[in-house]
């Protein structure tokens, strides 16, 4: 036989032999119900591999509100080191079925919020734990402190197993001042669109599809008066994350921190 033809044949035979050895050394018996399994002729000698450990589901499946928030207490709370307000009374989300964030123009926001307002008195302070009827839905007010500088509304919806897309959120907090704090600006970063009021007056509107960016938009100068000041927020979101952050800045652009927050 020609040596050139013999070499490939020998190589093939060696390879086949190695494959047979590998199969005998490492193959495991078939699983239940398969050919040669318990229902087949070789069940008595079959070897089953070890059971795989359960694969945990990705992310948080507990719907625990304490992962991102803590229940507020009657003790007044200062803003965080960056001046961000973490304590809010928040109403469970109002389902609006708005699927597109681009629809949220300034006129659309004003019309929608006016038609789905929990109170025409913009200085009203909801009661923690109370349930109200709004837009045909029974919704609960919760007093919560965010664990982060921002208040993540999507995480709130997930934790309470409520609506997450096409939603409107109402929030209220009380700012307590020992003296008048003049010439400050409300500074906010909503996702995706929002409106903001201080002591009953609209001070800022942010339409459109925005991401949460600290100090994305600021109001005209205003005064936080001595005593209680009521801040109201409305956040609307179609799809994706719903979120916002808020603080006050002084004339130099530095965070204002000489006040406390409460929910009553």
TrEMBL record:
Keywords: Signal. Residues 40-50 have a biased composition (Low complexity). Residues 1-27 form the signal peptide. The keyword Signal applies. It comes from the Bacteria. Residues 32-57 are annotated as: Disordered. This is Acetylxylan esterase. The lineage of its organism: Bacteria, Pseudomonadati, Bacteroidota, Sphingobacteriia, Sphingobacteriales.
């Amino acid at each position: 036989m020609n040596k050139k033809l013999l070499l490939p044949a020998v190589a093939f035979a060696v390879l086949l032999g190695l494959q047979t050895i590998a199969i005998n050394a490492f193959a495991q018996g078939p699983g239940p119900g398969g050919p040669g399994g318990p229902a087949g002729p070789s069940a008595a000698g079959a070897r089953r591999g070890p059971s795989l450990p359960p694969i945990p589901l990705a992310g948080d499946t507990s719907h625990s509100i304490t992962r991102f928030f803590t229940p507020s207490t009657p003790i007044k709370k200062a803003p965080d080191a960056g001046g961000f307000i973490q304590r809010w009374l928040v109403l469970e989300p109002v389902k609006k079925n708005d699927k597109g964030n681009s629809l949220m123009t300034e006129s659309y926001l004003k019309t929608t919020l006016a038609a789905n307002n929990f109170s025409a008195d913009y200085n009203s302070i909801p009661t923690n734990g109370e349930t109200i009827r709004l837009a045909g839905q029974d919704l609960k007010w919760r007093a919560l402190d965010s664990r982060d500088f921002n208040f993540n509304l999507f995480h709130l919806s997930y934790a309470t197993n409520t609506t997450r897309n096409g939603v409107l959120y109402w929030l209220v907090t009380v700012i307590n001042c020992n003296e008048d704090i003049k010439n400050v600006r409300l500074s906010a970063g909503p996702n995706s669109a929002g409106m903001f009021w201080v002591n009953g007056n609209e001070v800022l509107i942010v339409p459109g599809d925005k991401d949460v960016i600290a100090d994305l938009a600021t109001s005209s100068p205003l005064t936080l008066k001595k005593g209680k000041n009521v801040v109201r927020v409305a956040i609307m979101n179609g799809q994706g994350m719903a979120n916002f952050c808020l603080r006050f800045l002084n004339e130099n652009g530095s965070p204002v921190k000489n006040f406390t927050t409460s929910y009553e």
